[in-house]
Amino acid sequence: MTQADRAAALVVDLGLGVSKAPAGIASTITPALSGADAGGQRMIDDILPALDPSPLKATLGGTATVAVSMVVLRAVAASARRGRPSPGYTAPPAGTGWTKREQGTHT
User: Fold this and answer.
1) Are residues 37 and 87 in contact, defined by beta-carbon separation less than 8 angstroms?
2) Which pTM does this prediction carry?
3) N or C, which terminus of the chain has less Cβ within 10 Å?
4) Which of 74, 85, 76, 82 lies closest to 98, judged by CA?
5) How many CB atoms lie within 10 A of CB 97?
6) How far is it, in rounded angstroms, from Cα 73 to Cα 39?
7) Which residues lie below 8 Å from residue 58, measured CB to CB, with a gap of 6+?
8) What φ, ψ does residue 24 adopt, rounded to 5°?
9) Are 48 and 68 in contact, with CB atoms under 8 Å apart?
10) DSSP labels for 46-57?
11) CA distances from 45 to 20, 51, 54, 106 (A)
C-alpha cells in the first residue's frame, strides 16, 4: 500500500472525506431550498443547519452546507454584476459598474 493509499484510507476511516456531500445536496438540500429566494442568504443559512439534526452535522456534513451557502452567495453576486441585484443585497450605484479589482480578480 502506497503512502497516498494509506492517507486516503485514513481520511475515509476518520469520516473526513467528501463523498457524501453530492448525495446530501441532491437528496436533502436541493428539495428544501427549491424555490427559496436567493436574496435571503440569512434564511438559507438558517435552513441548512436545520436539515441535519445530528450533533456534529455528520449526516450532511459541513462540506455540503458550506458549499451550498457559498454557491447561493456567488449566484447573487453574479446576478448583481449583471445589473439584477437581489433584494437584501447592495449593488453598486447605477452606471458605475465594477472593476476587475472590485470583483476580486486582480490581474
Assistant:
1) yes
2) 0.63
3) C
4) 82
5) 10
6) 8
7) 15, 52
8) -65, -40
9) yes
10) HHHHHT--STTS
11) 20, 11, 17, 29
* Under-50 pLDDT residues of the chain: 91, 99-107
**DSSP label at 107?**
-
Fill in the DSSP letter of residue 3: H
Tell me the C-alpha distance between 84 and 92, whole Å: 11
CA 75 to mean position of chain CA atoms: 10
Separation CA 28–CA 39 (nearest Å): 21
What's the sign of the alpha-carbon dihedral 20, 22, 23, 27? positive
Measured CA to CA, the distance from residue 22 to residue 19 in angstroms comes to 7
pLDDT, tens digit, 9 for 90 and up, residues 47-64: 999 999 888 888 888 888
Asked if residue 70 lies in contact with residue 29, where contact means CB atoms within 8 angstroms, the answer is no
Q: Which amino acid is at 88?
A: G
